[in-house]
Amino acid sequence: MRILAPPLAIALLALSGCGGLSANAGSTSPNGLQKTTLNVAVVPAVDSAGFFVALYEGLFARQGLTIHYTPAVSSEEVISQQLTGKYDITGGNYVSFIQHYVTDHQPLEIVAEGSVMQQGTQAIYTMPGSKIKTLKELKGHLLGINAPLNINYLLAASVLTENGIRLNQVRFPTAPIPFPTMAAALAAGKIDAAAMPEPFASAAEQQYGAVPLADLNQGATQNFPIQGYVATKSWVQQNPGTLRAFLAALSQGQEIADTSRGAVERAMEALKGPMNGQIPPIVAAVMAVNIYPTSIDQVRIQRVADVMYQFGLLHSRFNVTPMIGP
């Protein structure tokens, strides 16, 4: 049985004025919003289902917000653009956010959780005619991931290591492979295997006959927190009313996504084009879905930093407390 994080947490956040948010924020509109139009970049995967549900069902609009959504090829790609002001809020993997905070000292703040991995939502795939039938047979072969040293890599690294395979025995691409094009790269033989999340995994099975080699929801990364939403600390301070409105809508979307599979299917079927995350009904009907928390669990997010340290993505232990929003 799944245990839902209490939706009351974000509701109270909205009512309380976000606690420690700056009282010197910019001027507000009559409805208390510093900004009414937001540019939001989100990875177009099932990890973002709560956001897509909120978008599809008009929950942001009810809060007075107009959302301009951009699909993110990877979190890594959009973080630098967020820091220059191109995006107000981004949704992506915690690994990239933590890396930028620790390594580049970039002022990112996690304002909401996005997803927690479940069985079947992330896996390594091969083609049916591949000679690779076990994880050990990946040695010497190219395993496709969507970006170097991000969460896609971390999940694969964890499973490989726990199955006795050294990471230097498997090759990884040096350039990003966007999830919407990864199955085609696998089918064309450009990569020997692919680590893919839903819905791209189910789409690869449907379109190309891809077969799962190993589920990534195991060992050190079982029930692993995958995605969150961040803003810069200065943006949070300057836009407290807007952030409250965004979180209120997102929390509703998360709760609906967590309790209504049909709502997730409808929202992702309605997106405009595959690069934006749109999926056909035949894929929506069979894809696995995640847990979508409605409040931030710091202990859960700390797991990400701990596993990053375990597998060498951080050179020292890191406490995520400074990154957690008020």
Low-confidence stretches: 1-25
How much helicity do the residues have?
Answer: 25-40%
Net shape: globular
Distance between the termini: 30 Å
How would you classify the helix and strand content by structural class? alpha/beta
Major β-sheet strand ordering: 2-1-3-9-4
Separate helix tally:
13
Radius of gyration using CA atoms only: 19 Å
Order of helices and strands: HEHHEHEHEEEHHEHEEHHHHH
Beta content: 15-25%
Multimeric status of the protein: single chain
Average pLDDT metric: 90
Number of strands: 9
Largest β sheet strand count, sense and barrel closure: 5 strands, mixed
Kindly summarize this structure in a few lines:
The chain is of the alpha/beta class and 326 residues long.
Q: Could you please describe the fold and organization of this structure?
A:
By secondary structure, the chain is of the alpha/beta class. The chain contains 13 helices and 9 strands. It has helices spanning 8-16, 49-56, 59-62, 75-83, 94-103, 151-162, 179-187, 200-208, 233-238, 240-259, 261-269, 281-284, 298-310; strands at 37-42, 66-71, 89-93, 108-116, 122-126, 143-144, 193-197, 211-215, 225-232. The chain has a 5-stranded mixed β-sheet with strand order 2-1-3-9-4, sandwiched between helices. α2 (49-56) crosses α10. The longest helix has 20 residues, at 240-259. The two termini are 30 Å apart. 51% of the residues are buried.
